[in-house]
Design goal:
- The complex is a heterodimer of chains A (320) and B (123).
- Chain A is α/β, with parallel strands linked by helices.
- Chain A is globular.
- The relative contact order of chain A is 0.18.
- With 123 residues, chain B is an alpha+beta fold.
- Chain B is built from one helix and nine strands.
- Classes of the chains: A alpha/beta (320), B alpha+beta (123).
- Chains A and B meet through loops of A and β8 of B.
Chain lengths: 320, 123
């Protein structure tokens, strides 16, 4: 039986074969390498078949998103449990990620008790450093004050909570595009944040790899459902000169990818519930799928950077 | 022929005060929040990420109640802050206002700003 653990050197309940098998379940998972502007990809199934280890990297981190703690409707009656499973997967990784990025919608209704539950469950994660950006569900009633009080302690948050930091030569930028939204509009960054962004990257060399993360996609995924950010073009204009830009988003609860020049856009799965593919339903929202299928549509995203190469590997794996 | 007894006079006076209050309220051009759900006639159902009806016509002083039938939370936010916004409404939660001065009031859901609606208030 292929699901039996044959080698468990770490005594963590998962062997290498099992890990690759699990990752191969992510039907849309690809290993991305961008070199000289040419995009190459291998499916996870190919990687698993070749039995080659992922290349050694100088930095690996993990993106989790849309945990929606407090949601208890038909699409997933126990989102805390699926969040725990996601953390178990992180704890079982052969190479622990340096840190986590949570791309928003920590909670369903911005309630203090929902944030409490999230924080409590997160304690089981061996990786302790977590960087956050808010989703619209985290800032429902107070403009994000509660969110900022809790999740910006380790960064120098500006304005409504945006910030940047450097790790291993990579420049990370966390943006907020879920506040002060206008009637009929999309996600929005706003002038103050855009001016900050322009100044933030002004003195960086063009070979500096850039990772931008924000809740709502920074490209027009499906504006009819509000899946886009009205002023993202201006933000991307400031990043155009860089050789490697990776944009990580949540919000839409599914893996979607797009490459435009040196910019790779990537949206992650949720740990709570899936949403319909753009335009395949009358409206967005929690998608009820057969119980046995749910965990195959939830997941997390691993990102690896090797210093000296303009390559970031973005690999999605589900919770099956 | 009705004569104003002291009791009737009090009633008339209260009526007058009520009318005066309403007029002042209308002049102020505001809308008042009211959690009471006694008036059910002007109801807007939030379903499938839309306000139904999208445009509702009501008389000044009447109540308007929204009820969220989606699994997603929604809010009611007035464009231009003409009336106080709701908190996030979870499934089956309601929000009621009493409308004030005649006019057209646009509103939207601040969580899903593609969702918009209009209240037309007539005299």
């Amino acid at each position: 039986m292929s699901d039996y653990i044959s080698h468990d050197h770490e005594h963590d309940g998962i062997d290498r074969r099992g890990f690759l098998h699990c990752m191969a379940w992510a039907g849309t998972g690809l290993l991305w390498t961008v070199s000289g502007g040419v995009l190459a990809s291998k499916t996870l199934a190919q990687i698993a078949k070749a039995a080659e280890p992922l290349p050694a990297t100088d930095l690996s981190f993990l993106q989790i998103s849309d945990s929606h703690i407090g949601f208890s409707k038909e699409a997933n009656k126990d989102v805390t449990e699926t969040f725990k499973i996601a953390l178990d997967r992180i704890n079982a990784m052969p190479t622990p990620p340096a840190f986590l990025i949570h791309t928003g919608d920590i909670t369903q209704l911005s309630k203090p008790e929902e944030f409490d539950t999230f924080d409590q469950v997160l304690k089981s994660c061996r990786t302790k450093d977590v960087f956050y950006v808010p989703g619209e569900h985290d800032v429902l009633n107070d403009g994000g004050k509660l969110y900022r009080d809790r999740y910006l302690k380790n960064v120098e948050g500006k304005g409504s909570g945006w910030y940047s930091f450097n790790k291993n030569g990579v420049h990370f930028i966390g943006l907020v595009n879920v506040l002060d939204l206008q009637a009929g509009g999309l996600g929005q960054l706003g002038d103050e944040q855009l001016e900050w962004l322009e100044a933030d990257v002004k003195d960086l060399g063009t070979s500096t790899p850039i990772v931008v993360f924000a809740h709502i996609p920074l490209w027009a995924v499906y504006p009819q459902w509000g899946w886009g950010t009205s002023d993202s073009e201006r933000a991307l204009g400031y990043l155009k000169r860089f050789g490697s830009v990776t944009v990580l988003n949540g919000h839409i609860h599914q893996v979607l990818q797009k490459v435009e020049g040196n910019v790779t856009f990537h949206s992650a799965m949720s740990t709570a519930f899936p949403q319909p593919a753009p335009g395949t339903a009358a409206n967005p929202g929690p998608l009820k799928v057969p119980a046995e299928k749910l965990r195959s549509m939830l997941g997390l995203t691993s990102v690896q950077y090797k210093q000296g190469k303009s390559a970031l590997a973005v690999v999605d794996s589900n919770l099956s | 022929m009705t004569t104003l007894t002291p009791k009737n006079k009090t009633a008339a006076l209260l009526c007058g005060i009520a009318f005066l209050n309403l007029s002042l309220f209308a002049l102020a051009g505001e809308m008042k929040n009211d959690d009471s759900t006694t008036s059910k006639q002007n109801r807007i159902e939030i379903k499938d990420f839309a306000f139904n009806p999208q445009t509702i016509t009501v008389k000044s002083g009447e109540k308007v109640t929204w009820i969220n039938r989606d699994e997603e939370p929604h809010t009611i936010v007035s464009v231009g802050k003409q009336f106080k916004k709701s908190t996030a409404l979870d499934t089956d939660q309601e929000f009621t206002i009493t409308v004030g001065a005649p006019g057209t009031y646009d509103y939207f859901c601040s969580v899903h700003p593609k969702m918009t609606g209009t209240i037309v208030v007539e005299k």
